[in-house]
Structure formats: structure tokens, C-alpha cells
Amino acid sequence: MSIKVSKISKVYGSQKALNNVSFSADKGQIIGFLGPNGAGKSTMMKILTGFIKPNEGNVFVDDIDVLKNPLEAQKTIGYLPEHNPIYKDMFVREYLQFQASIFKVDKSHIEICIEKVGLIEEAHKKIHQLSKGYQQRVGLAAAILHNPTVLILDEPTTGLDPNQLVEIRQLIKDLGKEKTVLFSTHIMQEVEAVCDRVIIIKKGEILVDKKLSTLKENKQQVIEVTFNVQVDQKLFNQFENLLSAVNNQENTWQLTFNSTEDMRSKIFDFAQENNLKILGLTAQNKNLETLFREVTA
Ligand code: ADP
Ligand code: MG
């Protein structure tokens, strides 16, 4: 087992940040740790990486008892803390050399990591000269320098622009091919794009722990479609697997189907048959979205 958290509770003063949290992860999983601000994500990660102690419970990483042997455990853990605390006045290589010396890592490994995170072109610059996305890459490079088997990334995509987001998500996916990754986010779409599994946490308690594949088996499909004219609701009755049709605004309908087949092409046929034009058509993955809203609302 790569990660094993059992019955962790953490209290700050009178406030309970984590309440009896348990989960475990096999090798090679990418887990999205999803929850609103203040849910306890960072606290859990600091405990997992041995930086703070819980009031109760046990944590094992790669079968090492983190509470008893934090330094030993940290050798197998790569950690990118929230807000990526890097020394921005340093050059990229200089910073990574500094980190490598702390971890007692062979300096030859630095270039491998620079390549892995796509930093070759920027590695001669000072960190503050880099865009936020590239600064995140420096943080990721530092986290994987000692070749850890488990990666703990605390909101690695917060504050990135849309292009950087896509790049860092892809990088996390690539790293996940050889490592167990736990990363926190409050963006549900991020979990869908990157993870095998989602753990939703709120007010210090785990509310959902599911593989994304089981969420996708849920057959409900929601499609929002805008026609050029108003459509009589009765027309939709020809869809046998229609669960509901809601007229959101003027000519826009939210149609919910019970189907694993992509209903967009059927709606296109429907429009043609009824002499309608489609001005907009989007399929939503209702499953994770509704789940997140239901449990965190
Ligand atoms: P998240 O990372 O999900 O936003 P945190 O783990 O940072 O959540 O925080 C969980 C709760 O614990 C919050 O209510 C936060 O205010 C509180 N908290 C976190 N760190 C401390 C601390 N050092 N002292 C007191 N309260 C804290
Ligand atoms: Mg946090």
C-alpha cells in the first residue's frame, strides 16, 4: 500500500480540522483530494508528509510509519506545499542544486528532472523571471528530485491561467504513470481531467471516496441544447430514454437521459426531422458535478 491513513483527527485549539479520516491508496493511482476552502486538505497533507502531528490516528507511506519515522518517510515522498514556497531570487538550476544537496541527491539527477517537467528552455533563468506555470514546474522538479514513489501536491494548479492549467494537469498525469499521486484542488473538472479516483472532503470528514470509472457508469446524461425557435415539450416524447426536459431559458432546454450512448447525435437527428436548427449543444458530466454540489452544498 502506497498510502494508508487511519482514523486521523486533528484539532487546532478548539477547532476540529480533521475528524476520523481514513483512506488508503494502491501504487500508481492519481487521487484528487477535492473540497472547499477550509475542508482540511492542507492539514491532511501536512500530516501525511510528517510536517505536523495529528491528535489521533496513524499514517503510513510506502509502509513506513510517518509519525514514528518522518525523515525516513520523507525519502519516499515528494511534496509540493500550498503556494509553492520556492526561493525566487535563485536561478532555476541553483535552486534545484540547493534542494538536491538537502536531499543528498546526486546532482546528475537534476537535469533529468528539469527535462521531465519541461523546464529545459527556462532553466538558465531566475525563478522570479518565470511565469507562474513555470514556477510551478520548478516546484514539481524539486518535489521529484529524490525520486519519491508518492507525490503529495497541495493545490498545484491554483492561480494558473487556462493554458498553464492544461500543461500542469498533463504533467501531473505523466508523473502519475510511475508514482502514486495525491493532489488537492477545489476544481471538480480538474479531478475529471486528471484522476482515477476522487476523495471529497468537507469540514474535516470524507464524504465521498470513489473511482471515477464507477462514477462514469452512472447512466444519467445531461445535455443542454439551444434551438433557433421555441420547441413544444411534447416533441421530446419521442426519446424513450428521456428522464426530464427543463426549459432553462427561451429556446434552451436541459434534457436528462438515461443512456450510456452519447445522445448529442440523436438530438441532431431530432432537430433535422423536426426542421429545427441547433444553436448550441453541450453535454455535461452530471455525475461528478452533481455529486460535488450535493455533498458540499
Ligand atoms: P484546506 O486546505 O482544505 O483549505 P486547511 O487544512 O488549511 O483546509 O484548514 C482546515 C481548517 O483548519 C480551517 O478551518 C483552518 O482555518 C484551520 N487551520 C488550518 N491551519 C491552522 C492553524 N495552523 N491554526 C489554526 N487553525 C488552522
Ligand atoms: Mg489548503
Would you spell out the secondary-structure blueprint of this structure?
Blueprint: E1 3-12, E2 15-25, E3 30-34, H1 41-48, E4 56-61, E5 64-65, H2 70-74, E6 77-80, H3 92-103, H4 108-116, H5 132-144, E7 150-153, H6 162-175, E8 180-185, H7 188-194, E9 197-202, E10 205-211, H8 212-217, E11 220-227, E12 242-249, E13 252-258, H9 264-273, E14 278-284, H10 286-296
Parallel strand pairs: 3-8, 3-9, 6-7, 7-8
Antiparallel strand pairs: 1-2, 1-4, 4-5, 9-10, 11-13, 11-14, 12-13
Helix pairs in contact: 4-5, 5-6
The structure holds adenosine-5'-diphosphate and magnesium ion.
Adenosine-5'-diphosphate is lined by residues 12, 15, 17, 35, 37-43.
Describe this protein's structure.
The protein is of the alpha/beta class. The protein folds into 2 domains: 3-216, Rossmann fold, CATH 3.40.50.300; 221-296, Alpha-Beta Plaits (2-Layer Sandwich), CATH 3.30.70. Helix content is 32%, strand content 31%. It contains 10 helices and 14 strands. Strands 6-7-8-3-9-10 form a 6-stranded mixed beta sheet, with helices on both faces. The chain has a 4-stranded antiparallel beta sheet with strand order 2-1-4-5. Helix 5 packs parallel to helix 6. The chain is globular. The mean pLDDT is 92. It binds adenosine-5'-diphosphate and magnesium ion (MG). Residues 12, 15, 17, 35, 37-43 line the site of adenosine-5'-diphosphate.
